[in-house]
Design goal:
Helix content of chain B: 40-55%
CATH topology of the largest domain in chain B: Aspartate Aminotransferase, domain 2
Number of strands of chain B: 12
Oligomer: heterodimer
CATH architecture of chain A: Alpha-Beta Complex
CATH architecture of the largest domain in chain B: 3-Layer(aba) Sandwich
Number of domains of chain A: 1
CATH class of chain A: Alpha Beta
Structural class of chain A: alpha+beta
Strand order of the largest sheet of chain B: 2-8-7-6-5-3-4
Strand content of chain B: 5-15%
Helix content of chain A: 40-55%
Number of domains of chain B: 2
Order of helices and strands of chain B: EHHHEHEHEHEHEHEEHHEEHEHHHEH
Radius of gyration of chain B: 21 Å
Strand order of the largest sheet of chain A: 1-2-3
Structural class of chain B: alpha/beta
Shape of chain B: globular
Shape of chain A: elongated
CATH topology of chain A: Sufe protein. Chain: A
């Protein structure tokens, strides 16, 4: 039921792990009723310099996480934030219908990580403007 | 012996048809193809085979041949038992008692009887091991109760229910009692007198027989309404031309399963204990699901924390091992197994469940191969899991 590419990313997932000093972290999902994905990014010159993930979920969840990291690595933040769950599924050669909803959260995790980075940047800027805050 | 490419550990899902069973069935496809209702020689041959199969099955169930109804599968037998008894007794009462861990063939049929036919259904809880409490069955009985249906052994976790005890309670209250014995054949006694049951479901493909044929035992004197109406086959309880080849296969398979039942159960229990013991001692954060003792001899159901069952299944499949999971992801539903959650296992742990069910062709080498690869598969998934504390 899974494409060869899904099986490849499940068997040999890319960019698994944690970035301890990440610039942005995105965590989506809920273990009680769905999958959980964690995405860590390092940003350099407004580009994704490095990315790692951890996922609790089925084969599709692991494969979508893995390919999503490959799709955004080196991309500008503005490009990476546009990544859609559908684009991730398409890149894998499609997913079984019942997996489209529950296990296709990788783009959401990417977006959450980038938004986390932006909100940290904003916080730092606000602090710089109002040091006496 | 031909080389097996797969280690098959999914016998609760289905089993390979025994070569002797295939042999018994073969003449009934193209040589003795008569309709068992026809008067001519070919018809009589088919009829004779059908009645011999009925007598053989009745012998094993310790009942009379007229009490054996052949159906197309376990699901049909469950449907006939539940709908048949409920509809027939609608004037007398509208209450059904069942458990919260039944196969969907019973569970979803009860839900439909509730939703569309105005019945009221009590779904009894189970304890942490998946056991139904007979005292709870008795407490649930009302003046309007017309049917009790509790499975003999659970398909996911293998827990064996106290059927004889529940049957006695049902009998004392004059209520029809059905049991889905689909998982029990070949492992447990099917003596309907000892079990105190009025209706009992079997499915051939679970005991090395063919798919597409089942049995419903219906105690003489118990009136049920047919679900399939037509030419009045099977004492009018199941119309439709009999699947003679399939029925011959079912009877042959049941005889073989019964002959080797005790010896094979002992062998499988030893293999299963080696498997469960090996997994529990080599993989941390996991637990055996179901009852520690009162369980089917071939069932090893284990929940692994911090991982999803489907990942384990794919990992095993890549190693040439076929197993199953109660995990939602592998079944395409959005909820984890109703059986495992009914036992009080938290949903996130239930999602890491793995069911390995051993069978006739499995050996100690198969078990050792699983023990060789499973810790690595779980370990790899845990290393990827944000939930794993490390």
């Amino acid at each position: 039921m899974y494409s060869e590419l899904v099986m490849k990313h499940f068997s040999d997932p890319q960019n698994v792990g944690v970035i301890e000093d990440a610039d942005g972290v995105g965590k989506v999902g809920n273990p009680m009723c769905g999958d959980v994905m964690e995405m860590f990014i390092k940003v350099k010159d407004e580009r994704i310099d490095d990315v790692k993930f951890r996922t609790f979920g089925c084969g599709a969840a692991i494969a979508t996480s893995s390919i999503a990291t490959e799709m955004i690595k080196g991309k500008s933040l503005d490009e990476a934030v546009q990544l859609s769950n559908k684009a991730v599924a398409d890149a894998l050669g499609g997913l079984p219908a019942q997996k489209m909803h529950c296990s296709n959260l990788a783009a959401d995790a990417v977006r959450a990580a980038i938004e986390d980075y932006w909100s940290r940047q904003k916080g730092a800027k606000d602090e710089a403007v109002q040091p006496e805050g | 012996m031909e080389q097996r490419s797969v280690i098959y550990l999914d016998h609760a899902a289905t089993t390979p048809v025994h070569p002797q069973v295939v042999e018994a069935m073969l003449p009934y496809f193209s040589e003795r193809y008569g309709n068992a209702s026809s008067l001519h020689t070919l018809g009589r041959e088919a009829h004779q085979a059908l009645e011999q199969a009925r007598a053989d099955v009745a012998g094993i169930l310790n009942c009379s041949p007229v009490e054996i109804v052949f159906t197309s599968c376990g699901t049909e037998s469950d449907n006939l038992a539940l709908r048949g008894a409920a509809w027939m007794n609608r004037q007398r009462g509208d209450h059904i008692i069942t458990s919260s861990i039944e196969h969907h063939a019973v569970g979803h049929t009860c839900e439909q009887l509730e939703r569309n036919f105005g019945f009221e259904v009590t779904y009894l809880p189970v304890d942490e091991h998946g056991l139904v409490d007979p005292a709870a069955v008795e407490r649930a009985i009302a003046g309007t109760t017309v049917l009790i249906s509790i499975m003999y052994a659970n398909n996911e976790v293998g827990t064996i229910e106290p059927i004889a005890e529940i049957g006695e309670i049902a009998r004392n209250h004059g209520i029809a009692f059905h049991t889905d014995a689909v998982q029990a054949a070949g492992a447990l006694s099917l003596d309907v007198q000892e079990l105190n049951v009025d209706l009992l479901t079997l499915s051939a493909h679970k005991f090395y027989g063919p798919k597409g044929v089942g049995v419903l035992y219906v105690r003489e004197g118990l009136e049920i309404l047919p679900v399939l109406t037509g030419g009045g086959h099977e004492r009018g309880l199941r119309s439709g031309t009999e699947n003679v080849a399939g029925i011959v296969g079912l009877a042959a398979a049941l005889k073989l399963a019964e002959e080797r039942r005790e010896e094979e159960s002992q062998r499988l229990r030893a293999l299963r204990n080696r498997l469960v013991g090996g997994v529990l001692s080599s993989v941390g954060h996991c637990r055996l699901l179901g009852h520690p003792d009162s369980r089917l001899p071939n069932n090893a159901s284990i929940a692994f924390e911090y991982v999803e069952g489907e990942g384990i299944l794919i990992g095993m499949d890549l190693e040439g091992i076929a197993a199953s999971s109660g995990s939602a992801c592998s079944t395409g539903s959005s909820e984890p197994s109703h059986v495992v959650t009914a036992m009080g296992v938290p949903p996130d742990v239930a999602r890491g469940s793995l069911r390995m069910t051993l069978g006739h062709e499995n050996t100690e080498e198969d078990v050792d191969r699983v023990l060789e690869v499973l810790p690595g598969i779980v370990g790899r998934l845990r290393a990827m899991s944000p939930l794993y504390p490390g």
